[in-house]
Amino acid sequence: MLDDRTIHFCRACGTAVRHEIPPEDNRPRAMCPACGTIHYVNPLNVVGTLPVWGDQVLLCRRNIEPRKGLWTLPAGFMELGETTAEGALRETEEEAGAHVALEGLLTVLNVARVGQVHFFYRARMLDTHLAPGPETQEARLFSEAEIPWEELAFRTVRETLQHYFRVRGQGDTGVHCIDIA
Amino acid sequence: MLDDRTIHFCRACGTAVRHEIPPEDNRPRAMCPACGTIHYVNPLNVVGTLPVWGDQVLLCRRNIEPRKGLWTLPAGFMELGETTAEGALRETEEEAGAHVALEGLLTVLNVARVGQVHFFYRARMLDTHLAPGPETQEARLFSEAEIPWEELAFRTVRETLQHYFRVRGQGDTGVHCIDIA
């Protein structure tokens, strides 16, 4: 969930900030009048996988808001100190308890409206053992015909699944870049 | 430049934070004991272009630290409210004053050590007019033989240029994903 990221106080010294355009900049930033720290608020990366087992793919039913109860791919916010691939593997483990091997970046989706970039990797499931974490009600495999298209949590998940089924079997291992309006 | 992003005070209420592992989390976060805000520090995206004019590419000599005086591709931190492509275009305009048309994502480079993901787009220069901004000492075109390999500012720039020259003319328009150790 997107928390309120507005900066009211300086992270370095605790003084109330002013929102002004710094010298040699062109947009307002939270500036500390006491210690001079300039605070930037930047887009966030969401990293995940599309786990595949034979002709089936793995979806997780969300146990947290937003979109609790709807189906998603295992994904979450990228952490400091990890790569996009490492983050995607971590989220797959945390949310589905699935063991997978990554097979390359599948989609990069810009969601500028909420200040996010989503990365989904193709992943080959190594077995069908699943152990959903606290953020997941249920994890299960779906064939293409079984995908609950009307109960998907996010457009980025829909676009990634659609792209996967479109190119599956074509030998297309390229990255699909999409802007979500 | 990477500023010190350590959080000492709550952005919402100004109270000194504690660094603790929140419930249902698995790593320490800056938590506010007064208002309960949890502060996350996440990776940053750097977006830029590799502008091409005939058999030449555009490089910019940096006028700011770090690596002042060394050559780079036009790039900078992605801003809230823009896509990676929009940010890459903006940085190309700001740093080189170059007019370009984007031709697809070329490289995605993970630099986990500094908590960054870099995106470079192929860009076709529309003319050779250049108007370097305050962060650039000089912008000019280089043939492959002229590239100042020993005076490049960043590994991500080197890798992107190497990849471009490797696949140039091969019809390979795929995205190259690289981890920078």
Give a quick set of tags describing it.
three-stranded antiparallel beta sheet; homodimer; Ubiquitin Ligase Nedd4, Chain: W; 14% helix; 2 helices; alpha+beta; Nucleoside Triphosphate Pyrophosphohydrolase; 2 domains; eight-stranded mixed beta sheet; 181 residues
Total count of domains of chain A: 2
In quaternary terms, these chains amount to homodimer
Count every beta strand of chain A, where a strand is a DSSP E run of 2 or more residues.
11
Distance between the termini of chain A: 19 Å
Radius of gyration of chain A: 19 Å
* Major sheet summary line of chain A: 8 strands, mixed
Tell me the CATH topology of the largest domain in chain A: Nucleoside Triphosphate Pyrophosphohydrolase
Give the overall shape of chain A, derived from the CA principal axes. elongated
Proportion of β residues of chain A?
A: 35-45%
Output the CATH homologous superfamily of the largest domain in chain A: Nucleoside Triphosphate Pyrophosphohydrolase
CATH class call of the largest domain in chain A: Alpha Beta
Helix fraction bin of chain A: 10-25%
Keywords (chains A, B): Hydrolase, Magnesium
Cofactor (chains A, B): Mg(2+)
InterPro entries (chains A, B): Nudix_hydrolase, NUDIX_hydrolase-like_dom_sf, NUDIX_hydrolase_CS, NUDIX_hydrolase_dom, Nudix_N
Organism (chains A, B): Ideonella livida
